[in-house]
Amino acid sequence: MLNLRTLHTTDSDFETAFRQVLHWSADTDAEIEGRVADILAAVRQRGDAAVLEFTARFDHLQVASVAALELTRDELKAAFDGLPPEQAQALNQAAARVRSYHERQKKACGESWSYRDEDGTLLGQKVTPLDRVGIYVPGGKAAYPSSVLMNAIPAQVAGVPEIIMVVPTPRGEKNPLVLAAAYVAGVHRAFTIGGAQAVAALAYGTDTIPRVDKITGPGNAYVASAKKHVFGQVGIDMIAGPSEILVLADGTTPPDWVAMDLFSQAEHDELAQSILLCPDLDYIGKVREAIERLLPGMPRQAVIRASLEGRGALIHTRSMEEACEISNRIAPEHLEVSSRDPHRWEPLLRHAGAIFLGAFTSESLGDYCAGPNHVLPTSGTARFSSPLGVYDFQKRSSLIEVSEAGAQVLGPIAATLAYGEGLQAHAQAAEFRLRRTAAD
Amino acid sequence: MLNLRTLHTTDSDFETAFRQVLHWSADTDAEIEGRVADILAAVRQRGDAAVLEFTARFDHLQVASVAALELTRDELKAAFDGLPPEQAQALNQAAARVRSYHERQKKACGESWSYRDEDGTLLGQKVTPLDRVGIYVPGGKAAYPSSVLMNAIPAQVAGVPEIIMVVPTPRGEKNPLVLAAAYVAGVHRAFTIGGAQAVAALAYGTDTIPRVDKITGPGNAYVASAKKHVFGQVGIDMIAGPSEILVLADGTTPPDWVAMDLFSQAEHDELAQSILLCPDLDYIGKVREAIERLLPGMPRQAVIRASLEGRGALIHTRSMEEACEISNRIAPEHLEVSSRDPHRWEPLLRHAGAIFLGAFTSESLGDYCAGPNHVLPTSGTARFSSPLGVYDFQKRSSLIEVSEAGAQVLGPIAATLAYGEGLQAHAQAAEFRLRRTAAD
Questions:
Q1: Which of A111, A231, A395 has the CB atom closest to B386's CB atom?
Q2: Which residues are Zn(2+)-binding (chains A, B) (predicted)?
Q3: Which residues of chain B have pLDDT under 50?
Q4: Which chain B positions have a beta carbon within 8 Å of A349's beta carbon?
């Protein structure tokens, strides 16, 4: 018997119960913060020597120099060549689709633009790739080759000339799929280091490891704390919380499909969150029955059970409209609109990392190979942030070329406002362009 | 006599001297951090009551309720109506140009897009405005109405339905230009609160002040620390360091213009940085002469002198090409290409917040009214970040609709990779879409 809660929006205590389900604290552990600060300071001061010490201590990996921790491009290729053909092909196909999507993304929103106004003044933005980025790839049980593709390919499509991967290999154990994915995704250099020390090496640079401009990729609490710490020194992507799925169902999808989609989030870890929103109580019962029936067959059933009982919920709503409103309050990472008429509901959905439309769009297809990125905002941050994309590996510079005629129009406006702010040099700089020409 | 350093790239100690000029530490004060953490916790726990207490203590403003700190739309309008006509007109003209530029920006990179692949699978991204944003406007000497325009207008163009401004008014003194700018820029609500307590109120919400999704705008060390603290709970823009200008000159611009442009950055504060890069030593001498001659006439000469002597530099380079390389190392906030042939050098410039092309494009024209945003990345962060823009007030959601045919193609790829990662529910969710159709 699975202890999975059902909530009804008509219940008087719904609001309290709903808030309890959503509650998740991103507060960081002060002890971890302190240890991370020490590691960052050590790497900043002592560079390679500190990286070697921490790698020996935390990853039980003893080498003579940081250079010995670099994986050559040949090693990455050998890992790819050693894969079972089916895996090699799946990796290639997934990479091709992810690349194709991100190329479209670059075209849609990542190109320079400019225009001239009636005075001949040129205005626009120049879009350029970052010079060098670092991609953190976790080791151990959370080693996902698909995450290598999802982080490295947008950087590659953006045109970043140097993509550096770091991945811890505790006791020297390398994950061949991760190395193969790095090969397929076009990673330029790779080091077998991890933890806060890897983040520090990328943020500050050492004699062996070059300083990067941005660090992306998921990691444990130490990595997350280190990334938050170096933010400003370098760019970072979002700090990811536990993964979440929200299925908004109108009752037309086979209940087994929905049950398995809820499992596919719950199997990540005990803190992952799977929620079903549906106005059809009878259908909710069928999904619950499917969950009970399918669960014993799942290899990761212990994790799935803990996740569903701890953080899962089946929510019975008054209507699909109300389900959409609740979805907006949750702002989920993954949102499946499991409906015969998904385009009816999509316009009502304002906040979500990714929206999966229709019964055939299982989240797992999007996780691996549909094309869009699987690095998505969690814990309600879809209210204000976006999937990882090509734009994360580019930056923009405003372009302004004021014509002589334009300077005569803009000068008095700028001078008036500058004097109003008490900034006389600003005002005079504008006025100098009024009084004489560049020729004298 | 002004003690402004000249460096020559040919000098053997150039590298050391150059690094010294650039050195600026963004490290935050532990004492400030501690006080800010206390303020944030108090507002989080006690809401309005804490906001009132801190406002009384820090701004010497005693009122009975937070509601009494709200500025009505009528008060904002009255401030605008009370302006001298020249100021009112300048504000309107600047706002119109800034709005027009940001509308172009939204068209160029802020619209939803999608496409269908050969299987009929729909892929794309939906771009939506944030629900509610907070704009921090400093009080006192750094009260800049132009910053109100630059923060609020991109949010308005993005379509944010609720823009909330906070501005401290120590002892109740209100800046009419700031209030008028809020009116012109379409701010929806405004509260006369400031400091870390204002950031906390916006991030967590109180009974009176609604919780926002993102907080932008400059502030003092307390505000910066508070913003960094609440990052993740809400979105924030970059934490700004001291303002900087870099003038890259080929020696064809009147030296007085360049001198005044250097002043216009230096007059902001003692930590602001003004640097000239030029291959023509004779011209550098003329700029220095202009600086010495013009400085005594500047009302803010004390600040300008402190800034130029503390952080300024005239750098003599071997060539314009070398000047461009050095500019890329600096990654300045404002970059003037003061050349007869700015388009020759622009392609060599990879990192800058804004690039001002040609002698007529003084930075101050861009600061107020050319159109592009004046909120720009500082302290070398132009390596990885961008001007404030419409995109900061939007977020993206991936859209995926896999067709039945598409699910047959994608399913085996996803399943292979999911099994490779040990995530069986992911694999089965994909396989369920292979075995049967939505109809059964």
A1: A395
A2: 265, 268, 367, 426
A3: 437-440
A4: 397
